[in-house]
Amino acid sequence: MAWSTREIAQLAGTSLRAVRHYHEVGLLEQPQRHANGYKQYGVAHLIRVLRIKRLADLGFSLSQIAAMGDADDHPEDALRTLDTELAATIERLQRVRVELGLILRQSTPTDLSTDFTAATAVANLPNADRSFVVVLTRVLGSQTMQAWADMLQDPVSDPVTAQFTNLPADADERTRVAVAERLVPYVHALYAAHPGLGVTNSGTPHSAHFVKQAVRDALQELYNPAQMDVLRRLNHLLADQYGSNDQETE
Asked: Could you list the residue ranges that cross the membrane (predicted)?
């Protein structure tokens, strides 16, 4: 019995290129050749190609197949190892499907964990506020972040928030002062309704300096100069009232 390279590939259900590659990487021995120089494959070659293809289809790499050798037609240890790896992969993919389902049902932003209970509310925020909350989820502890989530799910309504959001970068000083002053009672209402709000390193591996610097950097990048001036003025007004910077907003 003698087959050509093309015929052995067809019988094994693979490609001519694959058979040649098996030769190149040492997985398949070179067959004898006819007097005219054409290769002549036998049954042993067909069985070897079938075994290589089956193992590759199961998920083994060619280097793993090479390590098994060509004598073992039932590499039990390797098969059991692969089965364990596949079980872990299936479990991971099932978790991914559950998470994808939550993201699709809740329209959750993909930059937020589905564990964040206010993900849907965040999706509806203005872009700058939304990005700021994402940063907070990375630097604040879970307990502090839960207070922010509660606030986002049950917000304190006040027209001044829209005034701040829509404040142009070139807003005059009088306008900025007015918005800052109007924000003071709004912030009081926020803290009254959600006393756990704040910027703290409690429950995180970060230093207090790191957390506050990360928040400051995010604010600087996300909000325009007039908005930042309002936040600084608001911080000073709150500090004057509380006698400290415990409710720092910048």
From this structure: none
β-strand partners of 32 = 40
Tokens read off for 77: 């240890």
CA distances from 217 to 111, 156, 246 (A): 19, 26, 19
Q: 64 and 51 in contact (C-beta within 8 Å)?
A: no
CB contact at 8 A, 160 and 176: no
Closest CA to 224 of 185, 176, 157: 176
Query: Which CATH fold topology does 5-72 show?
Result: Multidrug-efflux Transporter Regulator; Chain: A; Domain 2 (1.10.1660)
Global pTM exceeds 0.85 = no
The answer to whether 62 and 27 have CB atoms below 8 angstroms apart is yes
DSSP state of 154: S
pLDDT in tens, 62-110: 999 998 877 667 788 888 988 999 999 999 999 888 878 877 776 667 7
Type of residue found at 216: R
What's CA 238's distance to the chain center, in Å? 37
Domain ranges, ordered by start, for the chain: 5-72, 74-106, 119-242
User: How many angstroms separate the most distant Cα atoms in the chain?
Assistant: 101
Those residues whose C-beta lies under 8 Å from the C-beta of residue 200, and which sit 6 or more positions away, are: 140, 141, 144, 208, 211
